[in-house]
UniProtKB/TrEMBL annotation:
<dbReference type="GO" id="GO:0046872">
    <property type="term" value="F:metal ion binding"/>
</dbReference>
<keyword id="KW-0804">Transcription</keyword>
<dbReference type="GO" id="GO:0051537">
    <property type="term" value="F:2 iron, 2 sulfur cluster binding"/>
</dbReference>
<dbReference type="InterPro" id="IPR000551">
    <property type="entry name" value="MerR-type_HTH_dom"/>
</dbReference>
<dbReference type="Pfam" id="PF09278">
    <property type="entry name" value="MerR-DNA-bind"/>
</dbReference>
<feature type="region of interest" description="Disordered">
    <location>
        <begin position="1"/>
        <end position="34"/>
    </location>
</feature>
<keyword id="KW-0408">Iron</keyword>
<keyword id="KW-0805">Transcription regulation</keyword>
<dbReference type="GO" id="GO:0003700">
    <property type="term" value="F:DNA-binding transcription factor activity"/>
</dbReference>
<dbReference type="InterPro" id="IPR047057">
    <property type="entry name" value="MerR_fam"/>
</dbReference>
<dbReference type="Pfam" id="PF00376">
    <property type="entry name" value="MerR"/>
</dbReference>
<dbReference type="GO" id="GO:0003677">
    <property type="term" value="F:DNA binding"/>
</dbReference>
<feature type="region of interest" description="Disordered">
    <location>
        <begin position="165"/>
        <end position="184"/>
    </location>
</feature>
<keyword id="KW-0411">Iron-sulfur</keyword>
<dbReference type="InterPro" id="IPR009061">
    <property type="entry name" value="DNA-bd_dom_put_sf"/>
</dbReference>
<feature type="domain" description="HTH merR-type">
    <location>
        <begin position="36"/>
        <end position="104"/>
    </location>
</feature>
<dbReference type="InterPro" id="IPR010211">
    <property type="entry name" value="Redox-sen_tscrpt-act_SoxR"/>
</dbReference>
Length: 184
C-alpha cells in the first residue's frame, strides 16, 4: 500500500463506503447474537423517531433495561411489538387500548402466533364497530348536497345552537342522528 493512502481517511480511499454507526454495529461479527438493541438501532429498524420510542416507553407500551452506562437497551422482540403498535394506530385504535392488549402478552419471550391471534381477536369487535360507523357515515353523506343537507333533521353533522358545546371541548360526532337526539 502506498504511504499516502495508508494515512488517508476512509472516505478518501477509493471504493470505501461510509455506513451509519448503527448499521456498522449491526454488521459486526456476532452482532445478530446480541439479545439487546440500543434505542438508535430500534429507531432505525422500526422507522420511528427515538422520541417516539421514549414516548411509547413512558406509556408502558414497550420496556427497556439500562446498561452499565445508563443507556436504554431493548430486547429484539420489541421490534415486533413496535410493528403491532404502528399497525394498531393506523387502524385508529387509541394507545390505551393498544397498551391494554399488549399487557396480556408474555414478558421475556417473543410472542407466538397464538398470542397475536388472541390480541387481534380482542380488537376485532372494536374494529367492526369502527367500520360500521364509517359505513353509516359514508352512506349518510351520499344524501347530502354540500353542507346544505337534504334533511337537516337527520344530519349527523348538524349542531343547532351549539348544543354539542355542552359535551366539552373538541369535536363530537354521532353517525346515528337518533342517538344524538336522545342525548340532548
Amino acid at each position: 500500500m502506498p504511504p499516502a493512502s495508508r494515512h488517508a481517511p476512509p472516505s478518501a480511499t477509493p471504493g470505501a463506503s461510509i455506513r451509519p454507526a448503527a448499521e456498522a454495529r449491526s454488521r459486526r461479527p456476532g452482532r445478530a447474537d446480541v439479545p439487546e438493541l440500543t434505542v438508535g438501532e430500534v429507531a432505525e429498524r422500526s422507522g420511528l423517531a427515538v422520541s417516539a420510542l421514549h414516548f411509547y416507553e413512558s406509556k408502558g407500551l414497550i420496556a427497556s433495561v439500562r446498561s452499565a452506562g445508563n443507556q436504554r437497551r431493548y430486547p429484539r422482540s420489541v421490534l415486533r411489538r413496535v410493528a403491532v403498535i404502528k399497525i394498531a394506530q393506523r387502524m385508529g385504535l387509541p394507545l390505551a387500548t393498544i397498551a391494554g392488549a399488549l399487557q396480556a402478552l408474555p414478558e421475556g419471550r417473543t410472542p407466538t402466533v397464538a398470542d397475536w391471534r388472541r390480541l387481534s381477536a380482542a380488537w376485532r369487535e372494536e374494529l367492526d364497530e369502527r367500520i360500521a360507523t364509517l359505513t353509516r357515515l359514508r352512506d349518510q353523506l351520499d344524501g347530502c348536497i354540500g353542507c346544505g343537507c337534504l334533511s337537516l333533521r337527520a344530519c349527523p353533522l348538524r349542531n343547532p345552537d351549539d348544543a354539542l358545546g355542552a359535551e366539552g371541548a373538541g369535536p363530537h360526532f354521532s353517525p346515528d342522528p337518533a342517538a344524538r337526539r336522545r342525548t340532548r
